[in-house]
Design brief:
It is a single chain. With about 290 residues, the chain is an all-alpha fold. Helices cover about 70% and strands about 0% of the residues. It has 10 helices and 2 strands, in the order H-H-H-H-E-E-H-H-H-H-H-H. The protein is flat.
Length: about 290
Amino acid sequence: MFESCADPSSLEGLSWFACYLTTGKHMAFYASFGTVLLLLAIILPAALLFGFAGATAARSRFLPLSILGKTYSAIVRGVPDIAFFLFFVIALDQAFEYIRHKIKCPDWSEPIRQGNDFVVCTAAKMPLSNSPAWVHDTYAFLVAVLTFAIVYGAFAAQVLYGAMQAVPRAQIETAEAYGMSHAQAFRRILVPQMWIYALPGLGNLWMIMVKATPLLFLLGIQDVVYWARDLGGTKQARFTDYPHGDWRMFYFGALLVFYLLLTWVSEKVLDRLTRRFSLGQATAAGEAMRKAGA
């Protein structure tokens, strides 16, 4: 196979496609699907963590903390996602470099802000200019993960806050009447029961996050959209061994199938989680399950 691919101009039919679809760029294209799945696997718990912290803060009896939690959710939800994605990537990158600059270059005398330029010492750059390519890619991916978590954590905070409010107050009061502290009632009564109320909103948020993964392309990461556009575009014979016309429709069609399959699997998983969390709950679904069991 590899010897036959040495001279693509001599290939025809299936042999040409077999060699074309196993080029280095195509291997990177296939790997980028794993990048999307890895991103989703990381940002789901990360966004839930930010959301839970925001919702808990919003319910706090300490007024400044409550205002902070509600403000975080309101501001992020009120601004277009793409604006925050582009803003946070720059802001987080500069924040990290600023901290490293203060630690590594304490004797620096020049201002960091020089007009529109952000200037730090060479040792504070993230990543360093002489770092290998995989370090730059990993850093960009981690910044993207943190950006996704902050943005969608605000939406998760609002969903979880509403779910906490939906749990009957009488149950919390009963728990406290039996001697539980406010924190114990929150941990043992409120949190286990809120998930059934939160699941529909979290399910919608998950679908939104799935559809938002192409934004990785705007953050400088070589994701599925980047490679689909690059590989599908018209290729002239003088620039490549595998010339072809505009094939973007086929590549983006493959992305369509991928995302439809991903959302289909997600819906199946969400249905199972709904049945699991409905068990024993005083909801319509929980009551139906109780009657079916009876």
